Amino acid sequence: MPKIRAILFDLDNTLVDFIRMKEESCRAAVKAMVASGLRMKEDQAFELLMKTYFDVGIESNTASQSF
CA-to-CA distance for 16 and 64, rounded, in angstroms? Predict the structure, then answer.
């Protein structure tokens, strides 16, 4: 009998709540942006950043640049 050599998992929204992880990372990013001088309330910036992600693609690597 052959040995099992690997077990692979797709984590995005299968075993891990991807949207919750995205929200938490966006909140941390917004907090850092506001601390660095962004003139916007954290809640307002978070909502705008999340909207941008949903507009350009939730896995986009350019959404924060559009923001």
Answer: 22
